[in-house]
């Protein structure tokens, strides 16, 4: 009995072109490592399954559902978080044995990994429509932004008269969306929530956890300026 087609998946035969990388992340060195890893996998020099020492493996159905678009995804996309790879390696998506695969660095920051996994997953569903890398990256990023960074939530963190953001607030914003702070800023700029000047200023902020717990408390005698002093004043 044929298996039921997943709700967000269209039928597509990936066996025609065989094993191939769909999208690299990172710069030249990361791409070189990705090519070597994938060539070794295809040639049988190492095995991705079963999961264990080489990688933690999970399915991407929750990611596909969260992205929410009906795209021609390959069947049974798996996510491999690779151990023992160089820190310069970022990740890539690929078709291997007619299945979709997403490879990322297990040692990367958790928010960075989450963003990369979403981006690479959606690239597998868009690759047939966007063969050029630049257009594939741009469209993949747009769908991830729409899913993870909705306008109303992004807008709630920014004001047009604030020129600086403390590191602890940048840290909290990144953790709220579960993506790197720089991606939140890029989304805010695209949506015209922040200005070019604000974007440049905020990009210099280094997100960092506060050294001590902070409680936001506004007494009856306090006003909104007191609250803003807590959020945006000098630490």
What order do the helices and strands come in, and which of them pair?
Layout: E1 20-24, H1 28-43, E2 55-59, H2 61-67, E3 78-82, E4 91-96, E5 99-105, H3 110-126, H4 133-148, H5 151-155, H6 167-177, H7 181-190, H8 196-202, H9 224-232
Parallel strand pairs: 3-5
Antiparallel strand pairs: 1-4, 2-3, 4-5
Fill in the keyword field for this structure.
alpha+beta, single chain, 235 residues, five-stranded mixed β-sheet
Number of strands: 5
What structural class is derived from the secondary structure elements? alpha+beta
Radius of gyration: 21 Å
Share of residues in helices: 40-55%
Element-level helix/strand string: EHEHEEEHHHHHHH
- Biggest sheet strand line-up: 1-4-5-3-2
- Report the major sheet: 5 strands, mixed
Quaternary structure: single chain
Please give the count of helices.
9
Report the end-to-end length measured between terminal Cα atoms.
64 Å
Strand proportion, as a percent range, falls in 5-15%
Q: What is the general shape?
A: globular
What are the segments in which pLDDT stays under 50 over at least 5 consecutive residues?
1-6, 9-16, 215-230
Look at the structure and give the mean pLDDT: 86
